[in-house]
Every structure is written in C-alpha cells, then in structure tokens.
Design goal:
By secondary structure, the protein is α+β, with helices and mostly antiparallel strands. It has a single domain, classed as Pnp Oxidase, Chain A (Roll). Helices cover 15% and strands 42% of the residues. The protein is built from 3 helices and 11 strands, in the order αβββββαβαβββββ. A 7-stranded antiparallel sheet has the order 3-2-6-9-10-5-4, with helices on both faces. It has a two-stranded antiparallel sheet with strand order 1-11. A two-stranded antiparallel ribbon has the order 7-8. The longest helix is centred in the N-terminal third of the chain and has 9 residues. The protein is globular and about 50 Å long. The two termini are 24 Å apart.
Length: 158
Amino acid sequence: MYADRDQIGAALGRIPSGCFILTAAVGGRATGVLVSWVQQAAFEPPSLTVCLKHGRPVMELIDASGRFLLNVIGQDWAAMFRHFGRGFTLDEDAFSGLRIEPTEFGPMLRSSISQIGCRVGGRFEIGDHTLYAAEALAAQLVGEPKPYVHLRKSGLSY
C-alpha cells in the first residue's frame, strides 16, 4: 500500500457509482442537480445516503423541506448529463423542456427509470461535501431498464 495521493485517487475512482438527478421543492421553488455519491444505508427502515458538494443550491430546498426525490438515470444517460451537468441557480428553471410531475418530495423526471422519495434524518459535514442520511418513504419503478453505472479515472475529482 502507498500513501500516494495519485494512488489513492485511482483506487477511489474504481468504486462504481450510479448517476441520479436529485430534485427538491419548497414554497414554489424547485431545482435539480446531477449526483453520483448515493448508497443504500439500511434495510429497516429502508434508507440511503447522498453527498452534495458544499454550496449546491438544492441544499437550501432540502434543508427547508427535509425531503428530496432521487430520480435514477438509466443507460440512456447523455441527455440528463447535458441538461443537469452545468448546474442551476434557484432562480433558473431547471426543468425547462423536460417532462416532470410534481411530488411531495420534489419534481419527478418522467424519463428516469425509478424514483425514490426521501425524508432527511441526518446531515453531516464531510470535508468539501455534505452527507444526507434519509429514509425512503415512497418509490416507483418504470419498466425493467438497467441503471447507469460509471467509474472515474480518479476519485479525487468529478
């Protein structure tokens, strides 16, 4: 084993992750963000964790509502990456041109292969990210498509 930053980055990059569009809404404001650091965290109650880089606008809505919706991206990922990859301010329409449906957790993207409605149970500062631990309260599956999975060259950057 080596205490070399490049080696650590390469090893972290081999941890597979999915890609998701996390959405949140409160008080007539809504937005979405592309996220990859999501992991199931418990069986009972069914729970997951998601990490967001500090300063993401969606965090204001999550913190105010205590909820978010995780939209799972399928193998046809390119359009969602192009749309959400640059990020949005809370004053921009993050869903322009997309088919969405409002839910109590946040906007549901009709093109996603599944959705998970979550209630935040905890929030933790981890380095340059915030980790949200949340209970899955509702879900929907769309067909049987496979989720998008990716590896990074280095786990030290997106």
